[in-house]
Amino acid sequence: MTASIIRSALFVPATRPERIPKALAVGADVVIVDLEDAVAEDLKREARTNLETFLAENPEARLLVRINAPTHPEQAEDLQLCARHPGVIGVLLPKVESAVQVALAAGCGKPVWPIVESARGLAHLPEIAHAPGVERLSFGALDLGLDLGLASGSAAAERMLDQARYALLLQSRLAGLASPLESVFPDIKNLPGLARATAEARDMGFGGLLCIHPSQVAVVHETLMPSPQELDWAQRILAAGASGDGVFVVDGQMVDAPVIGRARRLLQRAGQAIP
Question: Which of 20, 27, 25 lies closest to 6, judged by CA?
Answer without folding.
Answer: 27
